[in-house]
Amino acid sequence: MPLDMDLARLVEEEQPSPGTRCLLYKATNNPTVAIHGSILAGTSSEPSGKSGIAELTTRLFIRGTRRRRAGKIADLLESVGATASFRNSQDSIVFQARMTSQWTKRVLEIVADCLSRPALAPKDVDREREGLLTDIRLRDDDTTRRGMRELSALMYPRGHPYRRDRFGTAETVKGLDRRDVKEYFDGVVARSPVIVAFAGQIKKDEATRWTRQTFGERESNKKFGSKGSADPPSTASRREILMAHKTQSDILIGGMATSRTDPDYEALNLLNAILGELGFMGRLGQRVRDKEGLAYSCSSFLSAGLAGGGWTALAGVNPRNVVKAYELMKEEIGRARTDPVEEQELADAKQNQLGSALMELESTEGVARTSHNLTHFGLGLNYFAKRRQIFGKITREDLQKMAGKYLDDSRLSSVIVGPRAKN
Predict the structure, then answer these.
(1) Together in a domain, 90 and 171
(2) Domain tally for the chain?
(3) Quick one: which of 22, 121, 289, 328 has the most CB atoms within 10 Å?
(4) pTM of the entire structure?
(5) CB under 8 Å to 271, separation ≥6 — which residues?
(6) Range(s) of the domain holding residue 141
């Protein structure tokens, strides 16, 4: 039986302490151990007026603990070929580690130290704050990232957590200091629910004990941050941002979509694969890039979290081609609303998603990440078995309905970023 169908039987789940969940997949034929975990904090849990605090705090985890400085941590990991990383996201703070089984104890000690006893030294806070300010300047000077930030402000209503950029703004980040970081860590990070998934050669009692000792008791009934309005803005908007020093323009078209747990997700995800992924950038890439030669790249993606999601089509073009490329993108999106996709396109999209899941489960990292994500979204470890049944019922007409529901012109806003075209 394929691993995706058998995941619920092979992955054990425990609750070491209130507010913590521990998942374990034993792989005796693989000498590695992988960890993928999350703390339900992140950008959506930031206090008002402290935009960027989750990102800044997360960057400080690897900067040292009360017992080890950053250089010592790096030396200990590199000397045994192990890796450990921490990143902030909209829904949570994610941590990952990978090592050979003989060094599991050492790496787990380091990761636990970083997550539960970070030094948060004033000089490190100052250094990381300056680094974050530099990244904000680079973000705002990048046509794609600037466009994504502006599009999020158009597609999500005020108060929605996904309207915020995880880096924050220069104004808010400049005002952050060690006291803010300490308050956020103690008040949010150290109290929020935790999910940890292990895969590889590790014993269950070792995994559960580490989870319990590292995280203690958490707020098991914590609600995910404020969702704001569930409805998209009442009117679609279009915004043009002049960046005269650039040589490329970016076209972004997008709107609010579904959360990962919404019943519409799978059909909409298949539609997105057809529009912007399959083959080489899907229908959008074939039409705008390959056939017409108007774009360097043209694709789409669906992002879905706990509090909703968004769909975005994106093209990088010569400034002279903005108008024509934009019209063709809108035309292809409109075709999905008026005409059912081809039967072969739908079959290919389904097979692509089934195959991607199996490929993800080929490694211990993939198993840990997958079992974590299924638990994080409350989908259940038997979800892939259920998804095969769901796929069997999804038709061409279902995808057309998704296009009409989520990709209607009244829901889609546009952002164009770049220089003016030269005559």
Answers:
(1) yes
(2) 2
(3) 22
(4) 0.93
(5) 336, 341, 349, 399, 402, 403
(6) 11-215
Cα separation, 152 vs 415, whole angstroms = 10
Specify the pLDDT at position 231. 63
Do 370 and 249 share a structural domain? yes
Structure tokens at 43: 């950008």
Amino acid at site 228:
G
Question: What pLDDT band is residue 29 in, cutting at 50, 70 and 90?
Answer: confident
Kindly state the tokens that stand for 334: 């409109």
* Amino acid, res. 213: Q
Q: Is residue 189 located within the same domain as residue 275? A: no
Q: Is the dihedral of CA 283, 289, 294, 295 positive or negative?
A: positive
Is 260 found in the same domain as 142?
A: no
Both 200 and 254 in one domain: the answer is no
CA-CA distance, 287 to 295, in Å (whole number)?
Answer: 10
- Residue 275 token pair: 């529009």
294-301: which pairs have CB atoms within 8 A and are 24 or more residues apart? 294/318, 294/321, 294/324, 294/325, 294/328, 295/321, 295/325, 296/248, 298/325, 298/329, 300/272, 300/275, 300/276, 301/272, 301/276, 301/277
The answer to whether residue 254 is domain-embedded is: yes
Question: Would you list the DSSP string of 277-288?
Answer: THHHHHHHIIII
The token pair at 206 is: 């070792």
Q: Is residue 36 part of a domain?
A: yes
Q: Of 160, 180, 215, which closes a domain? A: 215
Sign of the torsion formed by the C-alpha atoms of 213, 219, 220 and 225:
negative
Q: Is residue 228 part of a domain?
A: no
Of 337, 338, 346, the C-alpha closest to 396 is 346
Q: In angstroms, how far is the first alpha carbon of the chain from the final one?
A: 62
Q: Report the C-alpha gap between 351 and 277 in whole angstroms.
A: 13
Query: Which residue in 368, 364, 348 sits closest to 356, CA to CA?
Result: 348
What CATH number did the domain enclosing 308 receive? 3.30.830.10
Distance CA 100, CA 316 (A): 41
One domain for residues 164 and 250 = no
Sign (positive or negative) of CA dihedral 301, 304, 262, 350 = positive
pLDDT digits (tens, 9 = 90+) for 176-221: 999 999 999 999 999 999 999 999 999 999 999 999 999 999 997 7
